[in-house]
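Priority: low. Protein: DUF7808 domain-containing protein. Input follows.
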Amino acid sequence: MISRILLLTVFLSCTVIAYHQYRELKCSTPSNTIRGGPDRAECHLVLKEEELETGRPVPTGLGCWTEEHDGQEREYCDLVCPKSHTVFISYIDQGHRACFNFVTYQIEKRGEESILWRSGKCLNSTVNYRIGCKFDDPFDTQFKSDNEIFAHLRARARRV
Ligand SMILES: *[C@@H]1O[C@H](CO)[C@@H](O)[C@H](O)[C@H]1NC(C)=O
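Result:
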């Protein structure tokens, strides 16, 4: 009986506990406009375990690249959440004048990777996204260190 309860407890804690990570994608223009100005924004990703911690910044531009879709330029940035079963935006600046979900930005799944694209005036705007990713397995089963993450991002940039 006791071992049954123990088994049940182990089973429950395995199914209820999911592993998470947080990201912040910070994009800024020289004038800090949120309406789409004359300059391209530069972005960098911040890696976090918990949503509200300061996190570890990734070098500017690393993991980001551009593509054309129907004559429109998009900038994609890798969120470093491979094999996640859920990816969600937990926060974006309220009342943004150029970045609109599903119109000028969107999270996209490509294979096992999750990436976020921006287009149109959003490309030339300051914008910050806070993003959560949920996994079945602990994140450190995929990457042992930030150097491995940076190497993954550099390799990805070379593929496109
Ligand atoms: C965005 O910035 C680029 C680079 O400075 C510029 O060529 C382009 O015209 C700008 N786009 C808009 C919509 O202002």
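Residues 36, 38-40, 121, 124 surround 2-acetamido-2-deoxy-beta-D-glucopyranose (CB under 6 Å). The first helix runs from residue 2 to 16.
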